[in-house]
Amino acid sequence: MAASFSTTLLPNYLQSKRVTKQNLILNPSSLSSNKTLNLFHALEYPNSLLKLSPSRHHVTIASAASSSTGIQPSEETISSLDSVKVFDLKGNGIPLSDLWKDRKAVVAFARHFGCVLCRKRADYLASKKDIMDASGVALVLIGPGSIDQAKAFAEQTKFQGEIYADPSHASYEAFNFVSGVLTTFTPNAGLKIIQLYMEGYRQDWKLSFEKDTVTRGGWKQGGTIVAGPGKSNISYIHKDKEAGDDPDIEDILKVCCT
Hints:
Blueprint: H1 2-16, H2 21-26, H3 33-44, H4 75-80, E1 85-87, E2 93-95, E3 104-109, H5 116-126, H6 129-134, E4 137-143, H7 147-157, E5 162-165, H8 170-174, H9 187-199, H10 205-209, H11 211-215, E6 223-227, E7 234-239, H12 249-257
Parallel strand pairs: 3-4, 4-5
Antiparallel strand pairs: 1-2, 3-6, 6-7
Helix pairs in contact: 3-9
């Protein structure tokens, strides 16, 4: 089903609507909000493509919480991080704040391990890893899912940073990242996912349809922080206001590497 959709349905849709990569960049209005939402839903959950009805996504997009940078989290949030455990690829449980206790780290939180937008974010951040390495800064990615899902993501993306799984989603709750259908299916996210398909990125459908991802991780947005050294030293926070809301990489580098 995944291969059929990515190689046949998507190109046919784009051809029928005369949508090109250039038009999407220069003229996002070439896709209406409704059509974009429907297509984005199909890209994320293709098995439900035939179940969509025009009225199902005739919604008004609510404004989500805006990104925040340089804002210190509350003491309650910081104190809760010691009790949040993430797991490395060997299955070792590690308190979240230990990831930056003795070093500075850029920590990205993915929507879920199958997400095509998250695969782009991994590349986006890894493209500056040489600068981070030169400054002694670790690059870390956390995903809401199982250790096996994290292993699959590592194998598929060849991500050069550290990867951790958060099966309980506790780290996402601690940082109060936004969640919900209206922050997932947005026109901007839809346009971005189409562009990523044109660039050759692909969703992992198996990971995307695993029960926990669909019921929980599929609706939770992530974010990016710069933290450490020191458990309470969080100097940068970007909370994604919608799916695919990547932080400005130059802002991250200014905080972590200068």
